[in-house]
Amino acid sequence: MGDGNCIRTLKEFSIPDYILIPGTENRGVTHLPACPVVVFINTKSGGQLGGELLVTYSSLLNQNQVYDLGVHAPDKVLHQLYANLEKLKHNGDHYAAEIQNRLRIIVAGGDGTASWLLGVVSDLKLPHPPPIATVPLGTGNNLPFAFGWGKKNPTTDIHSVASFLNHVKAAKEMKIDSWHIIMRMKAPKEGSCDPIAPLELPHAMHAFNRVSATDKLNLDGYHTYRGGFWNYFSMGMDAQVSYAFHSERKLHPEKFKNQLYNQSAYLKLGCTQGWFMSSLFQSSTRNIAQLTKVKIMKRHGQWEDLHIPRSIRSIVCLNLPSFSGGLDPWGKPNKKKSVYRDLTLPFVDDGLFEVVGFRDAWHGLVLFAPNGHGTRLAQASKIRFEFHKGAADCTFMRVDGEPWKQPLPKDDATVVVEISHHGQVSMLATPLCRSKSMHDDNPPSPSIDHEEDDSSDDEFDESSEERRKFGAAETFKYTEGVDMSHLS
């Protein structure tokens, strides 16, 4: 790429300082960029690649529109930017109005980083919120893969970054559902309460900011946590393996600098944790049916019990067709089969998520086969897990790549996790996008698919006004001492 092309790229995507920095003088800016972008990069992701991307983007664009997430909180950046845009628009600046209308966001990092940015944009309730493109820079990269941005860590040279910018300019907008999680558990009689020891929740689950004291959902003697996700919530053995991986990476970060090494380490931990071993040789406490009672609500319906086969050791609530490195556990149900009569394709904007079960990792490998899928359990607008004293002291949970170890009741208390619809955000999608919208011009019909059958067979109701933010400002603030490299 010649210097002339670099300059053109700079002009097409750059934002002048007077837009980015309040109080800066407008020095006769006249060129309107076709695709103004704000870039957020987790420099601790992808080994050294995050830092290299920061340098490249800063060399191609105005360095004031490129932010290191280890230094700049995205909620503060966007709040300041939009406050300045609104002020300029109020003063009759048509250039600022066009910048706002055309603005797009690029976020480079793992799935946890991308989810963080989506939460911030969702909760700030910006006028004309910008759509988001994701640069794969983690281990799984499920979010980027679902929208056609690939799953391999990118190259960081000027040519590659300029090419990516051009794809961002050409990308189409796609709305996707976001999902709200609420979790309530009994407060311990002794020990730390913030978070509950030994609970270390991911940032998306308010590890550092519990529900306010005035919240109507608070109960005496209980803690209530809120969170959200865009891709998936999972529980069971898959989350346990993920937790083991994150714990190992936290102890030995120097070993986890290479994506290929990370994936091989993940596979090895899957073996040592028993995820590849037959459930016949494992304790029944690893089976979901022994751990929890599950209720679902279909669209505008009533709560009903969900039957979980006793062999299921992992359950996934999936919003996007990309899980465990880009695999699609739901597939295309064939409506000609009675068992699938009420099921549809996994649209990302239909107000429903797909509930899929797996017996073990070998069962997961069926996803590599044509028409392969997990055990389809339901499509729902709400799901509720109730844990009582019994089978185990703890289980493992995961949201959008971030796992935690969840203690279970030791007495007559109940731990409850409930998921419900929260709203929508805008993503940017390439022509390679795997996600399907209800509004696509020619959505494929599930009736043409020919699959085999599966190989195995109100307390929390609340108004949207009462829901605590789960993305912006303090709820997603990284406290001092939190290492960004551990955010997947």
Shape: globular
> How many beta-strand runs?
16
Uncertain segments: 278-285, 444-486
Structural class: alpha+beta
List SSEs in N-to-C order: HHEHEHHEHEHHEEEHHHEEEEHEEEEE
CATH topology assignment of the largest domain: Tumour Suppressor Smad4
Strand order in the largest sheet: 6-5-16-13-8-9
Which CATH architecture of the largest domain is right?
Sandwich
Query: What do the pLDDT scores average to?
Result: 77
What's the number of domains? 2
Strand content: 15-25%
Distance between the termini: 33 Å
Broad CATH class of the largest domain: Mainly Beta
Model description:
The protein is α+β, with helices and mostly antiparallel strands and 488 residues long. The protein has two domains: 2-170, Rossmann fold (3-Layer(aba) Sandwich); 178-424, Tumour Suppressor Smad4, CATH 2.60.200. It contains twelve helices and 16 strands. Helix 4 (74-90) runs antiparallel to helix 5 (94-102) and helix 4 (74-90) packs parallel to helix 6 (111-124). One of its GO terms (biological process) is defense response. Residues 32-185 form the DAGKc domain. InterPro entries: ATP-NAD_kinase_N, DGK, Diacylglycerol_kin_accessory, Diacylglycerol_kinase_cat_dom, NAD/diacylglycerol_kinase_sf. It is an enzyme of class 2 (transferase).
